[in-house]
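Example record for the data management plan.
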Amino acid sequence: MKSSMQRFYIKKLEITDGNFMVKDVNIVYQLVKVLRTRIGQEIILFDWVENIDYLCEIIDFSKKEIELKLLEKIEKKSELDFKLNLFQSFPNKLDKIEYIIQKWIEVWISSFTFYRSERSQKISITEKKEERLNKILVEAVEQSGRNIIPKLCIQNKKKETLEWESIFLHTKNNKALSLKKYINNVSRFNCLNIYIWPEWWFSEEEVENFEEKKFSRIHLWNRILRTETAWVVVGFMFAQML
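Corresponding structural encoding:
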């Protein structure tokens, strides 16, 4: 199977042996009008329920539907055995939110929660913008080879943490742990919440609140990473070392 093969997410995907029809308007338009696919071309379909890719061949198509033949069910290991939940303070630009979603998808984040911290910039996420963010999320999953669609949540007010192991990223002090030391010392968990700072860091009050709640304070060496690039270190290390 070619890694460049087109993948498409379909809700409530039900495939049986033999030929079947796809009538999803967006998929039909993309295949027929945008990609100009031909009969005999192979594509992959998947849903968010199972970690399976369905390799299919295009048998026939029109402007409203596409007829496919199931060639193979491919069981995959594209998800982690535990959940990584990202709690991201609102950055100062919408395109940073888009970038964060696109890239954190690649390191297996299970859910995205964007919330307003004390030093978050004023940014308005309308229903239309949220719809666009969800579309970007699905496209990133299709391109990265993942099969489970992470949940996206936009919060305009601060919210208490979930009852799981939690860390927050900040500067180094006598209470801080390096990411490597934290990973080496932590016991196995089912779920981890990761809190990322806004452009001007967490306030002192927020830091005190995190520490009162027994969050682990993690520093990322001696470099200062941007709020939209911290994923490079954090997500990859958790995925590779746990």
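Summary line stored alongside the record: The helical segments are 25-34, 94-104, 127-144, 179-185, 204-212, 231-241.
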